[in-house]
Amino acid sequence: MKTSEVEKELKIGDIFTPLKWGEFAISQFNIFRKWMKGATIFDPTMGHGHLLEALILHGQRKGYAIQELPTQNLYGNELNYSHHKKALSIFRETYKLDMSQNLWNKDLLDLPEQTFDIILGNPPWQNYVDLPDIYKQKIKPLFAKFDLIDNKRNLLLGGSRIDIAALIIQVSIAGFLKEGGDAYFFMPLSLLLNDGAHQPFRTYKIHETSFAPIRVFDFNKEAVFQKVSTRYGLVHFSRNQAPDFPIKYSVFKQNKWEDYLSAPVGTPTAPLSIYKKHQEKKLNSFNKIKLSKDSMPRQGLNTCGANNVFFFNICQKINEDFCMVDGTTKLPTKFVFPLLKSVNFKNQTEKPVAWVLIPHDSKGMPLSEDELNNYPELKSYLENHRQKLTGRKGTLINGWIKKGRWWALLGVGSYNYASYKVVWEAYGRKCFCPIIVSGIWQANQALQAFIPAKNKAEANKILKALKNPAIEEYLLSTRMEGTMNWAQPGKIKKLIEFE
Question: At what angle do helices 50-61 and 81-95 cross, to 10 degrees?
Fold first, then answer.
């Protein structure tokens, strides 16, 4: 397929690799020695060609002249025309090399398949949802083709957070790496460490072709790539090899590498847990918590960007039926609930400092138009914010808006009204400290998660199980402390066996 001129103007997830770290990869994996012995090396998304250039620099540092290096075995590809032109210029002006026959200006997805001994690359880092619309339409079918989603609809739901790096890595290995070949990628570590959208990548299969992670270098807080907040590292994959865990996992700390082991815990496609040798037995011998299906971990309710409409800092009782929120608005008390904030976990207090409006019935369904007419104060308040609420973005909330229930929230069900909740902070923490609250309290979006309970005894049973020190140890082993993925419901769900 021909790459369009419009596509060649696109800049997608450009993260260029510094030459210093290109040489680091070359040294760690003996890539230079293999190259000198005749191995062909391909960078599928080369940017300015720094990784290929690092091989030449490495050779010069070892005393080789340019003409002694097998530069004819270096190959690269770059979608963006300007980046491709810059790469050719660097090789021509710095090394007096004409690489125009070896460096191609195409979309990797349009490049005819051919095989190389080694792939050394840094794929673009960008979530599908953030890609230019023209490019989304082109690559959408490929996520299903390469087994990265179950069906195309998933790209409209949670799968929209999948990184294009996952697709580029799989295309590179399947279409451009020889049988038994090795691939080395600088990549976002979310593909290995995060729950959710990247779980299909961790099947480590492309149709019938398997590939295995062999070694991981986690750069941790080292600023290898400027202005990048994503966790990243260097990962070695081998084609036609099944994963064999644990694998060696090194973390850059205080200017040196600290060695760990890593393996999925619970299921083969679980995020990698990172641990020391002495912790391995404890992690692998963890007995899952047995709970009923009604005790499914849940994320807090979601306003879909309308916190200023649904959240309040002041709530004063007027009478049994009504309250005054933020000193200005009268609302039916039955739809206003205390909202958990970090202070409630810090002080373990049930004194509310925030409240949330939930215009849903006791089964969790948004009120119908007829039901809303029974509460004129509530209807008037929502009408005043109609423009804000109908303008919210997202596939799921748009489903409710199209049905005429534009006042809906997400993440609301009968579980929101359970008698008790066992709640924990799911975002940005490094301590797993669940607490029990009464059912009227509501968990706050992705910041918190909870398990509903029918009564106090059941809540105490769940709390006791969750306070098993092995759970916090497992969460710490996933190296998600301080991030949004610290203890989200999906991660806790893996530790539960539903009866």
Answer: 20
pLDDT tens sequence for the chain (499 residues): 566 665 555 555 566 778 899 999 999 999 999 999 999 999 999 999 999 999 999 999 999 999 999 999 999 999 889 999 999 999 999 999 999 999 999 999 889 989 999 999 999 877 777 777 777 788 888 887 887 876 554 444 444 578 889 999 999 999 999 999 999 999 999 899 987 778 889 999 988 899 999 999 999 888 887 667 678 999 999 999 999 999 999 999 989 999 999 999 878 898 999 999 888 877 777 788 899 888 999 999 999 999 999 999 999 999 999 999 999 999 999 999 999 999 999 877 678 999 999 999 999 999 999 999 999 999 999 999 999 999 999 889 999 999 999 999 999 999 999 999 999 999 999 999 999 999 899 999 999 999 999 999 999 999 999 999 889 989 999 888 888 889 999 889 888 988 8
* Tokens 């489903």, residue located: 399
Q: Is residue 378 in a domain?
A: yes
Q: Are residues 247 and 220 in the same domain?
A: yes
Task: Please count the structural domains in the chain.
Answer: 2
Are 230 and 125 in contact by the 8 Å Cβ rule? The answer is yes
Query: In this structure, is residue 205 part of a structural domain?
Result: yes
The answer as to whether 124 is a domain residue is: yes
Q: Which domain holds residue 438?
A: 295-498
If asked whether residues 277 and 309 sit together in one domain, one would say: no
Query: CATH no. for residue 237?
Result: 3.40.50.150
